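User: Please predict the structure of the protein below. I'd like the answer in structure-token form so I can feed it into my own downstream comparison script.

Assistant: Understood. Taking the following sequence of 307 residues as input:
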Amino acid sequence: KVNIHERNFVNFADCHRLIGADGTLLMRYGKRCGSDMLISFGATMRGIVKPTLNPSAPYRSIKNMLTPILTEFPPASAATATFLDGLQVMVLRESSDTGRGMFLAAKGGNNGESHNHNDVGSFIVYHNGRPVLIDAGVGQYTKQTFSPQRYELWFMQSNYHNLPTFDGVGEMQGGNYAAKDVVYDEAAHTLSLNIAGAYPDAAEVKDYVRTMGMTDGIVKITEDVTLLKEKKICFHFMTNTAPVLNKRGEIALAEGRILRYPDTLECEIEEFYSEGLNAKAEWGTENLWRIHLFTTASEFKGEFTVE
């Protein structure tokens, strides 16, 4: 459900994007619990990640090498629409073939979840199994990762996710900072949620309804923001390849995708060094990019699309 394509997985919170899933273990697990889908997925992953000797789990390593490939099970076919209501995570695919078409994952939840980042209302977009708009992920665990200074790490902060800030104020950590009025529309393939409560009082967000969905391979993010007073509203979008401003209202992204935005917004593109992230291994580059789309107002209604 959260596998994007091959080793790529949805990587909200402290998850890594690239996972060497143990396909042979998954096949055995699927067989034990009677899940043909899990057996098929395990067989698919075994073809991608070959069994190796793991000194910390020698018995499992030997078991993996002795487990026959269950060839009678066809390659796994991914569901095109999934909603994990406990986590408030939506996953949409243009095609059940994971290597084809657009992919959108979006989340609600709260900022007090285990291993969380301040990312209520964030989302990621892939095309043909490759990243377009990203969640940067998590760096190597250090003492700071699980200290009171955790949210001083840039990749834990909402302004380094696909979320806006208001006069520079982003979301706040803690279980009380949460999405409300969360509605997954199975027919329309949309997730709508009010994320005003994910921001602290200093942001002065009165109401903020974000709706995320995909229709005919076009990702749509609809924003309805009302503030208590006029502020700089800045929408941030994260990429691992250099975006290019084609013209006002249109930005070229990876995979030949185009981000369209209201031309009333100003645009700046920032390249930065991903300190502490080990992005070279995760994304193939030590530098990442942020798109900043901003205006000064007390309210904003508009739509972003990736197509």
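That's the full token string. The chain has four helices and 19 strands.
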